[in-house]
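Fold this sequence, please.
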Amino acid sequence: MKLFQYTSEKDSKLLEYYSTIPKNATSTSAAMHNEIIELLKRHAVSLVVDEIKCFDVPNFTLKCDRTHDLSNTENLAIVIRYLQNGRILEKLVAMPTTQHYDAETLADLMIKELTNLCSDPKRMLLQCFDDASVMSGKIGGAQRKIQNRLEEYIPYVHCLNHQLHLVVVNTIKRIPELATFFDTINILHNFIKRPKIASLWKGLKLPRLMEHRWLGHFTAIENHSKIVGLLTECTDSSDSKTCIEATGILHQVRSPKIAKSEITKPRNSLIFDEILKQMSQFNVIEERMCRKVAGPNVFQIMLLKPWYHHDWITFHHKIYFAIIDESLGELDNRFSEQSDSLYSSLASLLPTSETFLDFDALKPLSNLVNCDKSALLSELTVAKAYISKQIMMTLLDSLGSLRIAKDALPNVYLLYGAALTLDLAQLHVNHHF
């Protein structure tokens, strides 16, 4: 109602109609609210339909994410990505629901919604869904059902951002020291969220760590110094339980096994030394006694040795290279099965590429959009000379330059438009939940 009143203040005609409405017609019932929401939805969708009719290139990328609500209903958010007037647009076009979770139903639902938009599903260039088997299955997944139903090859990709995150998650699981670190952070989360402790906390909110979101892990590392300060303060608490827990967590946080590392740097000792300098300020190195077996005989005396500074450096050196090696292994496992040829084809559209506008390198992309190969071959020479003269760093820059020559180089323009239409992440669609 407030939205209606606000709008009527800016629209004299609407205000005139509003003044004639009887005062007892408040229009605040649930049925009226739902009807207004439905009308707003139809209007928003109609605007998208009008835009679809004016695509720069006749293709789009389908993106979809799912979630269950409390009634066990499957809610889908369907987003399409397309190019209009040289701009990349992503629009939420439908949020259908279903009580059935099978791949057949989900595929039918997505095709139905696309058809309702007056958009030919066969113009789909790419499918971008989550990695659940019901969506990603190579034989029985929704992505395969869509391809079978449309009788078209439409590549499927799992969101590359999610895949990169899984690389980090699995690397953590395989390195005990990292697993211990983030287990400690989860204990910290439960400790700090207590009302008495929360009132003392001055740092950024410490979120619960979840495998599908890396933000919590990063925030925890950024808060290291404030965490140590809070725990130190809690060790003086009059509450014995709080004091004991804070002392135990503080000991673990200050342990030499807790390291702040950067995984994205090159694998070499010089980088490790630089990270070690930064990391040292977050660690309190204490000499402690460790048990060491003097020999294989179980009856021999157990010896003690101190933990020296050089042992601490060696320990972190081992962890650092283990992180790099595990990350590289995970990257290889998760990305080796992707369509590398298609990614290379996209790179060939950049002026800085060694295969810039090479006909053979562009074949995977040209096959996907089904352009005229003979015409494309003749256009590439002209386009290469034309684009090379421009000062452009991105595909969008190149597309903007080609808009002037769109009629002369239609197939090259189609390739650039299709490349920008392709998307390998689900960031936009995830925001709708």
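Residues 183 and 295 are 33 Å apart (CA to CA). The longest helix spans residues 309-335.
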